[in-house]
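From the shared-data thread, chain only:
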Amino acid sequence: MESKYDQLLREYRKLAKRADQRLVRLEKLSTQENFRSVKKFAYARAIHDIKTWSGEGATRFNTKPPKTIQGLKAKIADIEHFLEPGNTSTKTGIKQMYIKRQKTILKEYGLNMTWQEAAIMFEQGIWDKIDGYKASKTIMIALGEIKKNADEIKALKKNVDKVQIVEDKVVDKRIKKLLSDHKKDLKKIGIL
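Structure, as tokens:
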């Protein structure tokens, strides 16, 4: 009859092999556009867990197993956490995370973007830079307005030499309108 340790060892080997294959797929995925930062999510946690179990140079789960039943159960739990459905250890999970972030940005800031644009924003650290400013909500609202009016802005850039200087009263009226439209947000962050 198989001992409890041997049963766990068999389960550990099976899960570790599956997890290691997923790590390889994530490493390959990290070379694709919109997925360059995949190593920052579940992959990073997995590598941390692997190093905890097997030392600094380790990069895979399927290594020398712990010698105790308790240790084996703990390592299996770490592997299962990495393999959980819906987390960022798969391409689908990562894409769902970006879609969720994109929807939050639309809801909170009115900035409509594709999940790919959201991915670029997070991968390139743009979000971290914006989030670090006191007026980050205003910046996001401004980005939303710029994106909504992209065609008009392109037309203005194209014809910038043909644009005549507008009276200060017209500009002043537009600025006041924009400020009143976003007064609540500007007050929240202490600008007004």
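The longest helix spans residues 4-29.
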